[in-house]
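Margin note from the TA: students keep mixing up input and output lines. Inputs are the sequences; the output is the structure of the whole complex. Example:
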Amino acid sequence: MLVLAGVAVIALGFLLRFNPLLVIVVAAAVTGLAAGLDPFSVLARFGHAFNQSRYVTAIYMVLPVIGLLERAGLQERARGLVGGLRGLTVGRLLAGYLLFRQLSAALGLNAVAGPAQTVRPLVAPMAEAAAARQGEQDGEPIRALAAATDNIGLFFGEDIFIAIGSILLMRGVLEGYGVRVEPFQLSVWAIPTALVAFLVHGARLWWLDRRLKRRAR
Amino acid sequence: MIGLNLVYAVAGLFFAACALLGAVDRRWANALFHALLALSFFAGDAIGDLGNGVLVLALVATATSGRMRRGEPETANEPHGPLLALALVIPAAALGGTLLFKRLPTLVDSQQATLVALTLGVLVALALGHWRLRAPPLAGLRSGRRLIDEIGWAAIMPQLLASLGAVFALAGVGDVVGGLVGGAIPAGSVLGAAIAYGLGMALFTIVMGNAFAAFPVMAAAVGMPLLVHQYGGDPAAVAAIGMLAGFCGTLLTPMAANFNIVPAALLELRDRYGVIRAQAATALPLLLFNVLLLWWVIR
């Protein structure tokens, strides 16, 4: 039971809005000590795991490319793209992006899009421009919705692909219980939730368009 | 063989450039932060576990010193050049390279095919961009430094959380939580077990920030013993739907920093939790749907 102290540290620290990095390190220390490890082996274990997961941070190397293109006016160009398409609303744009993200993730193409690669330089400025045309002046919630749409499309598309990490993990865990399943059997069960995810989020986007239209009148 | 070595060398070079450019602009805390990250990418395997632990403490101390400054705004020029085509170079390289490298297992580590392809795409896009846009040689790195400063210390939060997960696993946090959830189910209730499993996946994912960490725990506590063995549910369905219930939790937690916190910084949102707020109204109905689907599959 004592090892749950680390979870409590995380919950309290985030709630009281301490610096999250500090909260994480303290939580790791508390958890390790509660489990009876000495401080140095907790630190070594944490350092080892940090070194093993560097690939998570490597993605930022795309930033010079994004920065270079933005400096040359990429966001403005993306906004201009919306200007040429008269019937394009923020809801339709994001619903189209949701579908693209779900389908490409279902084909295993997770790295094709993402917050740094596509949302910041392309999708968010296009969504903002479309929303501004519908009378929405505050771009902040629209940008947040663009990032949310990217996540939802990824999460509820990727499990349909048979070679993704979560499918392999489930297969491995089940095998530990002596149950053999084919990746295909697992990925089939991701389809109902993928459809409902599109319907629920699509309905919210349709609702947003409707709200903006009403407000404009 | 080409693999993470190339990826880490390029990432290390990027952070080293950020450190140098930061020092030139007298942004000392930012420069130190990026120099430490460059050290991690270049020499992480050489300095030992304890050395890496000290490196993490130095990073966190720099981040919490309050001296790191945000990226300064940059005014964009009038759009010129084939910008949209250049923007598609990295995604196209990631896609094409992944497919190609999977066929060259002796040349490229097939486990890391996508990351290697992405890295090469970055190098090609950077070179093409400077050439086609007639940008000064350091323009890309300078803008990249500005963007990484915009994200600030939140940049390493995902990596730190992954490391915390390793400590949680070592301390057996999962087994304790699993035991608690398993003990809370009323005996003989299929719906109760489905709710405990689905909500347990979501809640444990909210705590850990990662459905992968939650799945083995909840499978051991509820999924296998109750839903599969006692009530005869299809193990493939129980596993797949449980994982998706966990993904609903990922949409709701600041612990999944790479999906929820880093994008908020990258999009310059005033509200750190703005992306989570935008996701909640989709995640909650979807969680309910997954629990009901689970129940329907088993009964």
